[in-house]
Please model this.
Amino acid sequence: MGDARVTMFMTDHLFKWTGFTLGHGARLLAILLIAFVLIRVLRILTRRLIAPAGSESAARVARMREQQTRTLVGILYSGGTAIIVIVAILTALPEFGFNITPVAAAAGLVSLSIGFGAQHVVRDFINGFFTVLEDQYVVGDTVRIGDVVGRVEHLTLRRTVLRDPQGAVVTIPNGEITKVANLSRDWGQLFLDAIVATDQPLDEALNALEAVAGDFRADPSWSPMLLDGPRVLGVESLAPNGTTVRLQVRTAPTRQDDVARELRRRIQIELAARGIRLGGLQRMQLVATEREIRRVAGQ
Model:
């Protein structure tokens, strides 16, 4: 009698598991396969968005575009995969006897409370997404964000990390970024002023600057950094301390300071060689003892 009960119990459970496998198991397998196929399709589609820049000698714009696309593809793939997995889990829960209506309601309340409590984080992610999508800057660019100038070392949807000229690492939440100046795109430009003393021959000074500009353009060690100029624009302003003349030069990105330093050196040498003095006010600071001051006042 006991063996018969055990046999009936095992047979009953076998029928139940068989029915579950044929019914719910088949649906679970279908959900799993569909999710797997969708993730694979998403990976294939996102990888096709990336256009390789080619060799190391490829144009900087092409490399920058590839880097931007890779960042965006990573965001799309991660977000799409998370959505597919969540939908698959919610679809599979009813097969185990769970009612997902309370779960969905609880998830809605939790997401609402998190949204109110993490508004700044949400804003960071939204701004970061549009930063990548609109190609405002990428890792390696030199940018000015507010009063901070530095090289972009790390970029995520939540934050931008800069390395400033002093070597400090500056972390800026993307939600606080309202205006960005990208100093690494296309070209840079500078205006260089020289003040010639009033009693010096102005035409001779302009000729000296033209000579400096011509030699600078012809110098093979500096010409690759130049896109336009240097050119002498002429007299910029007049003042009692001298006449200001201006040069304009357009350079490769982030090379303005190097070019400006070299131009100042050459201008100083050329003007000195022609005997032309630079103007400008000179400040002198006298340091004397109290006894010397009284002696001078007594005279």
User: Anything to note?
Assistant: Confidence is low (pLDDT under 50) at residues 281-290. The domain at 137-182 is CATH 2.30.30.60 (SH3 type barrels.). The chain is about 55% helix and 20% strand. The first strand starts at residue 142 and ends at 145.
